[in-house]
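ARCHIVE CARD
CATEGORY: sequence design from structure
SOURCE FIELD: tokenized fold
FIELD CONTENT:
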């Protein structure tokens, strides 16, 4: 009869006929007494486990399957293999014996040993959950949460940075992550240094360029690691998810960033509570190594919480919404279990030259420059409509990836190094990213015309000879 791992579980139907004291069975079978060490080990097992070992010998299992199952069962209980085999050999008369070598090389039992070893290793590394009833005095002396970025991110948090396309969420996220890898203060807040594991599921090539720019601007950060090639973290896609979990277990990062949620979980039904709950469960599971997990996500068209079912927002420890405010970008805390929410993170996005292409043209990447929120408020920043803010953000993105130096001469900015892009290219980007929600082609044209005209009137952009550039950058 074949080996059945599931049959190792105790069954009352099998055990009930053999409720005799094991010592009486041993005497009736005229077996020699077990050595004292094995007797003590056997007696230490729970009663139903002892009955299981002795009672299964009366069933129709083959000798080898039954004896090997006993060995595997004892091994799973934490016994050394040689001791488990020695005890299994003291079964009722007529069942015979099994040697260690034959057990080791039997395929089915080897698989059981592997499973038992993995389970024991997993149990050893998982922290034991502490359960206590606390008094107010106990709460007063309990240790505070260990911060990563003080007042923003803490160990084992699940957080979210979200905003409209082009708002700058994938600029602030690597900036903060790089600072954690260096232990460098950000936005006036203390940072505890630690390893970072960044998953650029949406734009791996672009993120490499942004990390290159961070390297040039802030020097090296050996503890910053990019998880290249990880693009599908669905539970059924074991290769990417297991790779990330294994990497987290090995590196023990302080911070894991998944950029973006939609790209890392392709095809996800964001409004489905079960689907969003599975993402939250995956993020929580990744915190088992002590890391804070931050999800980069999109904002809804209406509302102040991350896009999708409220299961996500309800599970978050911290949430930062990123919005464009003219040339300025603001990060506003909409949820924070590590401090107050009346905090504003202000920054601008600039292009940083990281090299030249095969034609000798500049290759640039966006970099973050921190700003003082109070100074920005006093400067009378221009208020933009939602469409204007999105169009301006997409212009910045297009300039960063495809911008070319403006011509020199009358009518062009005098400052050197200013980059622009063709107006048609900018219009195409706005249409493809959904500046208008209308289905008619004319609605996209009208939406772009209104947004671009508004930006020119507010002196945010300038155009000439079919080229557009950001006025603030030129100044």
């Amino acid at each position: 009869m074949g080996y059945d791992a599931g049959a190792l579980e105790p069954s009352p139907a099998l055990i009930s006929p053999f409720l005799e004291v094991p010592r009486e069975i041993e005497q009736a079978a005229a077996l020699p007494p077990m050595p004292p060490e094995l007797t003590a080990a056997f007696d230490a097992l729970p009663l139903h486990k002892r009955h299981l070992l002795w009672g299964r010998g009366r069933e129709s299992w083959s000798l080898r399957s039954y004896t090997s199952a006993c060995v595997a069962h004892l091994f799973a209980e934490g016994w050394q293999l040689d001791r488990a085999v020695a005890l299994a050999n003291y079964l009722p008369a007529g069942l015979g014996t099994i040697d260690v070598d034959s057990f080791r090389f039997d395929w089915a039992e080897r698989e059981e040993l592997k499973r038992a070893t993995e389970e024991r290793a997993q149990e050893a590394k998982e922290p034991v959950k502490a359960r206590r009833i606390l008094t107010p005095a106990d709460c007063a002396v309990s240790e505070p949460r260990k911060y990563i970025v003080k007042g923003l991110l803490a160990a084992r948090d699940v957080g979210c940075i979200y905003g409209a396309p082009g708002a700058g969420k994938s600029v602030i996220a690597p900036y903060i992550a790089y600072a954690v890898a260096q232990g460098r203060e950000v936005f006036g807040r203390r940072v505890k240094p630690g390893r970072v594991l960044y998953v650029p599921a949406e734009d791996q090539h672009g993120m490499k360029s942004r990390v290159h720019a961070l390297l040039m601007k802030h020097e090296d950060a050996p503890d910053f690691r990019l998880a290249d090639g990880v693009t599908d973290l669905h539970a059924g896609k074991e290769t990417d998810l297991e790779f990330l979990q294994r990497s987290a277990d090995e590196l023990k990062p302080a911070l894991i960033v998944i950029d973006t949620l939609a790209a890392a979980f392709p095809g996800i039904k964001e409004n489905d509570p079960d689907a969003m709950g599975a993402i939250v469960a995956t993020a929580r599971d990744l915190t088992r190594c002590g890391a804070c997990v931050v999800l980069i996500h999109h904002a809804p068209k209406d509302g102040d919480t991350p896009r999708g079912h409220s299961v996500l927002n309800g599970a978050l420890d911290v949430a930062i919404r990123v919005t464009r405010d003219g040339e300025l970008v603001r990060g506003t805390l909409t949820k924070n279990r590590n401090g107050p929410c009346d905090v504003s993170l202000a920054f601008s996005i600039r292009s940083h030259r990281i090299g030249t292409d095969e034609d000798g043209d500049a290759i640039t990447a966006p970099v973050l420059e921190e700003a003082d929120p109070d100074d920005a408020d006093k400067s009378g920043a221009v208020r933009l409509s939602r469409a204007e803010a999105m169009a301006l953000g997409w212009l910045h993105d297009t300039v960063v990836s495809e911008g070319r130096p403006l011509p020199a001469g009358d009518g062009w900015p005098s400052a050197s190094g200013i980059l622009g892009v063709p107006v048609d290219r900018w219009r195409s980007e706005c249409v493809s990213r959904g500046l208008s929600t209308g289905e008619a082609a004319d609605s996209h044209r009208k939406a772009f015309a209104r947004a671009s005209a508004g930006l020119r009137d507010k002196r945010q952009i300038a155009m000439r000879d079919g080229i557009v550039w950001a006025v603030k950058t030129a100044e």
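CARD ANNOTATION: The chain has 20 helices and 15 strands. The two ends are 83 Å apart (CA to CA).
SHELF: design records, drawer C
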